[in-house]
Write a structure and sequence with these properties.
Elements (H helix, E strand, L loop, with lengths): L18 E3 L15 E3 L1 H4 L5 E8 L9 E3 L4 E7 L2 E5 L2 E5 L4 E4 L8 E3 L6 E8 L7 E3 L5 E5 L2 E5 L7
Antiparallel strand pairs: 1-2, 2-3, 3-10, 4-11, 5-8, 5-10, 6-7, 6-9, 11-12, 12-13
């Protein structure tokens, strides 16, 4: 919001939502993601069927390791700045107003990288299929699976981190 004004539920100013920094990836996969800033506005609004986050990436920061989900759809809308979208097809630049979608089970690993000299901000929306969802990371020795009701990172050979 550019102009400070009072809002009440069900509305909110995203700037009032605490920013979560970094990632829960195991080492050595945190380096280019640890400065990612995520505001989980969907959680604060009580949304349960899909997640909504506002993400800020400083120059050189990635949204995530390149990955794809077995059961979760993902959608992004660039709000500010320019981001490189990297998929199996290569790399392209997305600017304000541009969108991208990643259907569950596609097998097409993706992530965003801020290669510019200015911060970039995007809206991230994803379905909440965590109970069934597996995540595969395209370029690194990492997968995420459910074990004993928790999401756990493993090497691709199945050994735990």
């Amino acid at each position: 919001m550019t102009e400070k004004q009072s809002v009440t539920a069900p509305a909110l100013d995203p700037a009032t939502v605490e920013a979560r920094m970094g990632t829960n990836y195991p080492e050595p996969f945190t380096e280019n993601v640890k400065e990612r800033e995520k505001r989980m506005v969907g959680d604060v609004l009580g949304l349960t069927q899909f997640g909504v986050n506002i993400v800020r990436l400083a120059p050189g920061v990635m949204s995530s390791q390149r990955h794809w989900h077995s059961h979760e759809d993902e959608f992004v809308l660039v709000l500010e700045g320019k981001l490189a979208l990297v998929t199996d097809s290569g790399e392209q630049i997305l600017g304000p107003g541009m969108v991208a979608g990643f259907p569950a089970g596609s097998g097409d690993g993706h992530h965003l990288i801020n290669r510019s000299g200015q911060d970039a901000v995007y809206l991230e929306v994803g379905s909440r299929e965590e109970a069934n969802d597996d995540v595969d990371y395209s370029d690194i020795d990492l997968i995420r699976r459910k074990k004993d009701g928790k999401r756990v990172f493993f090497h691709k050979d199945g050994t735990a981190y």
